[in-house]
Design goal:
244 residues, mainly beta, 11-stranded mixed sheet, 1 helix, 2% helix, globular
């Protein structure tokens, strides 16, 4: 059960060093990174990764907890060539995964992060990996190239973009006038919204299925825009109904 007590029904529109063996990924050597930084509840957070998934969860503490695992495929020395840089201030935290320029380093970095519920996420991105976000109200930019984007129990202001992957977007309440966006090129979109949502829907699907019992430009009396775009894939709109 989600923090908001919803269930979904289909309505539907078209830095110790640790040596480890990982059978699932084929990587062999890993190193953990664990740090906690204070952050004002209405501060900003951003993260840029390259290879590896990112999961960000909202919580009630006024601090950011970062757990990352760097994993090298072959050489232990490669772990030190990829750095995790954190610029931490009381009102803003930025995390960057830094790889050496013009060198091929087979290292993946997987992040699990907790941030205050009301933090403004300016950007969370990775190139190769899934993005998973839950319990946050303001997600200005979620971006990956090769991977899915999954957003749960989120506020209405979400902008999610991937090239090769699916987008699952669950809005806990209606967006403000800035609206929400879910876009992919090669993948499908599933968007879950409250049953009483007032919004303007714009959906574009070039090569794929766009399911709808009744296609209209508005939900309820209309309101903030929700843009749903895909080239190769389907679009579905799900209505969240309270379980109580």
């Amino acid at each position: 059960m989600s923090r908001h007590g919803f269930r979904a029904t289909v309505f539907a529109f078209c830095l110790p060093l640790v040596a480890a063996l990982s059978a699932s990924s084929g990587y062999a050597i890993s190193k953990d990174f664990d740090q906690t930084y204070p952050l004002q509840p209405c501060g900003t957070f951003e993260l840029q990764n390259v290879n590896g998934p990112v999961e960000v969860q909202g919580w009630d503490r006024n601090e950011v907890e970062i757990h990352a695992v760097k994993t090298a495929k072959q050489q232990e020395a490669d772990l030190e060539r990829v750095s995790i840089e954190v610029d931490a201030r009381p009102d803003a935290i930025a995390v960057i995964t830094r790889y050496p320029q013009n060198e091929g380093v087979e290292v993946a970095v997987e992040y699990t992060i907790h941030v205050p519920h009301r933090v403004r996420v300016e950007h969370i991105g990775t190139v190769n990996g899934t993005l998973r976000v839950s319990g946050l109200d303001n997600l200005e930019d979620l971006h990956t190239v090769n991977g899915d984007i999954e957003v749960f129990e989120a506020g209405g202001n979400v902008h999610a973009h991937t090239t090769n992957g699916n987008v699952h977007l669950e809005l806990a309440h209606a967006p403000d006038k800035a609206g929400a966006t879910a876009e992919t090129t090669n993948g499908s979109l599933v968007v879950a919204v409250p049953s009483d949502l007032q919004a303007e829907i714009e959906a574009k699907c070039l090569n794929g299925n766009f399911y709808s019992r009744e296609m209209r430009g508005k939900l309820g009396g209309g309101g903030a825009p929700i843009h749903l775009h895909t080239v190769n894939g389907g679009i579905r709109l799900i209505v969240l109904r309270s379980s109580v």
